[in-house]
Amino acid sequence: MKPILATLIAALALAGCASASRVVPGQAAAPNQMLTFEVRKQCHAAPRCFETVQGAVDAAAAIPDTVPVAIRVGAGDFNERVEIRRGNLTMTGAGRDATRLHNDLVAENAGKYHRNNWGTAGSATLTLDGDRIDVRAMTIENSFDYLANDALPEDDPRKIGNSQALAVLLDIHSDRVAFEDVALLGYQDTIFANGARAYFHNGLIAGNVDFIFGNGQLLIEDSELRTRRRAGDDNDHGFQSFLLAPSTPIQQAIGLVVYHSRLTREAGVPDSSVALARPWHPTTRFPDGRYADPDAVGQAMFIDCYMDAHIHPDHWASMPGTARDGTKTDIFQPQDSRFYESGSHGPGARHRDIGITWRPELSIDQIRARLFEGWQR
Questions:
Q1: Which residues are catalytic?
Q2: Residue 30's pLDDT is what?
Q3: Domains of the chain with bracketed CATH
């Protein structure tokens, strides 16, 4: 061990910062001391205690990521925008009903927080951009008042056009990210899977328009996907809302997979109004122009899921993309996507045959094996 690192760890341990060893997903099982930081509403000058989550994250960033770090967030509301770009880290709250991390940024004004001035990505309450990150026992929310904005007439100058507001961004360097007993709350675009592998277990994801989306590999298991209501009269060819909007690269076998979970709704969401997924082809700059990526052939699967009556009988929907002339006139169809379901039950499980013929090469067991390769779960 390098002398400087050894001195730092020894000093932290003497100060009481080290705790019992544990295994982090993806880490070898050999014992390794974990360094622990606390976040409380009031620290009263306690050592290694911070009154903001980002303060603890910044302290953890000073420790080499070969050393596992734990951040324990106490009860309370923490109104922050947090970025975690260090791996080998566990952040644990005091429970979904006790610890709430929230912010109200929206795509319209959040571009300055993203490297490419992308407002949607910049709006995230929590950004994760490291390898081997666990988030546990807390609520993460984007508290932008979507419903008030949604209720405004289209010609009202107060209406925000870019109303995407992320709770969580899995950024491009993220991999082996796990959520356990976590609630993610938002409306449009609640969680953006824009990295590699992620696992969401025993939790809640709530939103309305495309609230789980992206090109990453995300397995949602034993969880609740709760559709939230709209305030306006928006209706896209008979659909009011959409659960998933995958943009999976064609060469990638795994996209957004929902397994053994419940598709529910809050009060005010009508029957037969919500699609399981629609195909997102992101607008991309190519040598010959800027238009919808033809190779983003979304992959979405629902396996052994309960579906309430808000699910539309077509189950799947189309989505417009940017044509070469810059207009949103390229329509991408679910029949040309990689959409699949099996074992559905509940009042929303019945559906019309709209010509979905794609079948996956991997079973759910094979998906889990591939997703967790090199990642202890």
A1: 189, 210
A2: 40
A3: 75-371 (2.160.20.10)
